[in-house]
Design brief:
The complex is a heterodimer of chains A (309) and B (447). With 309 residues, chain A is of the alpha/beta class. Chain A has helices at residues 15-30, 54-65, 86-96, 110-114, 133-147, 165-176, 206-209, 234-241, 245-248, 281-308; strands spanning 6-7, 43-48, 69-73, 100-105, 121-127, 154-158, 180-184, 201-203, 215-218, 256-258. Chain A is built from 10 helices and 10 strands. Helices cover 28% and strands 21% of the residues of chain B. Classes of the chains: A alpha/beta (309), B alpha/beta (447).
Amino acid sequence: MTADRLLLDLDDAQRPLIEALIKRALEFKRGVADASVRLKGKIVVGMFFEASTRTATSFAQATHKLGGTWHDFHPESSSLGKGETLEDTMRTIQAIGADALVVRHSESGFPHALARHFSAAILNAGDGWHAHPTQGLLDAMTLVEEFGTLDGRRLVISGDIRHSRVARSSARAAHLLGAHVTLCAPPLLLPPTSPGWGFAELSTDLDACLPRADAVMLLRIQKERADGAELPPAEDLMEGYGIDDARVGRMAPQAIIMHPGPVNRGVEISGALMDDPRSRIERQVENGVYVRMAALERCLRAAAAVGAR
Amino acid sequence: MKNRVPNRDFVGARVIDPTLGLDAIRTIAVRNGVIAAIIDGAPAEPDLDAERVDCAGMVLCPGFIDPHVHLRHPGDPQKETLESGLAAAAAGGFTAVAAMPNTRPPIDRASAVSQLIRAAEAIGGVRCYPIGSVTIARAGDSMAALRGMAKAGAVAFSDDGATTASLKALYHAARLIADLPQPFLSHCDDPAFEGALMNEGAISDLLGVAGAPNLAEAAIAARDLLVARVTGKRWHLCHVSARETIDVLRWARSTGVDASGEATPHHVRCTDDQLLGFDASMRVNPPLRSATDVRALKAAVVDGTIDIFASDHAPHAPDDKEPPLSHACVGFSGLETAVAAMFDTFRDLPIATLVANFSTNVARLLGVEGGTLAPGSPADITGLHLERQWTVDPAAFLSKGRATAFSGQAFDVKPAMSVVGGAIVYAVDRSGRPLQGPNAARRAVKA
C-alpha cells in the first residue's frame, strides 16, 4: 500500500514512484543544499517490535540528516504490554506530536493495522514475511547505480524466499524498473504459482541461474521466521542456495553480489567473498540512508498536506 | 408445560416439502402445535376457532434447522446472548439450531447440557439443541461424559473450533457411544498448523502470511472418517472447505461409512483473495479457500455429496474483528444471511433440494423431530419470500455479531416467517419490517 503518507509495501506500487524515490535518494547522496532542514521540527518515532540494529539506525540517521528528531518507542516497556489497545497507543503517540512512525513487527500486515488509527506518516521497516519497502528501494537504487537502467538486467534472489520480506520487496522494485527477476530456492520455499507474485521466474537450480545473472542477492537464514517443521537445516539450504568461490566462478565478470545483511559469514556467503570486489553489501547499507531520506521526505510532506486540509 | 398455541390454518402458500414430494398451493392446518393436515383447498371440517393466516405469495416448507451455530452462551454475552442468537435464528428463517459447545465454560458435562436446554426453553421461540464436547474442556485429550450428556439431551458431539487432537480419545469416545444415535461432528484442522491465519496459497504467499493448506483439513477428515468406519458411528464433517476433503468424503461413503458434510455460505461464495490488504474481518476457520475449492464445493452440493447447509454462525464483538490478522477472531455472523446466500448461490437447484439441505437432512443427521410437514409432526415451518430484493445491512442484524462476508450484497430470497410448534416466532411484511405476535404476524402476511 503506497498512499502518499504511507509506505507500507510495494505491492501496488508503480514504476514512477520507485523511479522518483531513487532519483531523490541519488540526489541526497550527491548532496542537497537544504537537506539538513527538510524535516526541521518534525518528530519521527521508531516503533520496533522486533530487534533491529541496521534498519533502525539507518532510519534514525536519515531523520537526523534531514534535520528531524528521532525518538525510539519501546513497545515492550510501553502500555501496550500492559493491555492498552493498539488504538489507544496510537492515539497517545499521535497526541505526543509524532509526524511519522517507522514500524517493524513480526506480523505481516501489522503496519497496515496501525494505519487505521494513525493519520500521520507511516513507513514500514519490515512486517513479518511480507514487506520491507525501503530495503527493496535501496536494493533497486544499488542496482541502478551499478547498471544505469535495469531494463533487461537479470536479478537472481536465492535462499529462503518464502519467509523473506526482503525478497518480496526487492524483487518487486527491481521488476518495476524493468529487471528480469528469478527466485531461486527449493520448491518448498518458492511461491506456489508461476510466475511468482505475478512476475518472477522460479528456479530450483542456482548454478544454472548464475551465468546469466547481472546481480545475485543472497538471503539471510532467518530461523526466527519458521520452525524446523517448515525450514530445513541451514547447512542443507545453503549448500544449494548460498554462494562460495566455486559459484562466484560461474558468474559473469561484471556481475555483483548483494545481501540484505546482517550476513551469517560462511553460511549464505563465504567470509572471503564479503570483501570481494563484486560485493555491494556495504554499498547497500550506505544507500539505505539516502533511500530512507527520500521516503521520509515524501511521506512526511504528504502527511503535512493532509493535515493542512 | 408450554403455553397452548392457537390452532392455525396457514392458507394460500406454495408448500414445498421434499419428504412429501409436494410443491403446490396448499393449506397447512395446525392443531395443538402439530401439523394436522395438508389440504388442497379449504379444510373439510373447518375449525372455527383456528386463526386463518394468509400466506399468499409465500413459500412454506419444513422448518429450517441450522446444525452449526455459536451462541456464545455461557460466557461471552458481549458477542451474543441466547436471546439475541435465537432471535437472529428466527429472523434468518430457522426454527431450530444446534449450538456448538465451545462456550466458556464449554458444554462438556450433563449439567451444562441441561442448563442450556432450560435457558433456551425459558426464552422460547426457536428450538436450541445442545452439542456436547467430545473431550473435557475441549482440550482434545480426555473423553468427556458423553453418555451423560446424551441422556441430558445433547444431539451430537463435537470439539468444534478445533480438531479433537488425540486420535486415541476420539476413537474411544466413538466406541463409548457406539450404541447411541448421536453423531460426531468434526472440525477438521490439523493442530500442527496452529498459527495459520488464512488459506495457504498464492494469496497468503503474496501477503507473507502463514497459511493452513487444504491438507490440514482433508487429512483430519480422512482420519476421522476412518474412526467412523471402524466404529460404525454416524459422522459429519463441519464446514467443508477444501476440494480434497470432498474427495475424502466421497471415498468414505463409497466404502459404506454413514457420513455427511456441510457447506457454509461463506465457503461457497468467498475466496481467499478477500484478505488482500490484510482484511482481518474476513478471517474464518476453516479459512476462505481458492476459487478452485469454491467450484469443487459448489459441484459437491449440486451432485449431492454435500447435502447439509450450515451457517457456522460465529458472532463477535466489533473489536474482536479488528486487525492485525492475529488479533482478529475467526468467523462471521451468519444466521440472518445463510438462507438468502444459499438460495442465491444454488438458484439452479430445485427448491426442494435446498429445503432438504436446510431442513430434512439436518433433522436426520441430528436425530431430531422436524424436517417434514407430514401430519403428526411438530408444526415447525419456515416461510420464505422468493422474490423480495433486499440488501444485507449488518447494522440491522438482530445478532450482536455484525461481521459478515456479505455486507452490501443484494439477495432475492428473504425469510418471511418462522413457526415453531405452531407459534409464530417471527414474521415480516414484504417491506421487511419485523412484526411479532400472532395478530401482527397475520397482518404481516396479508400485507
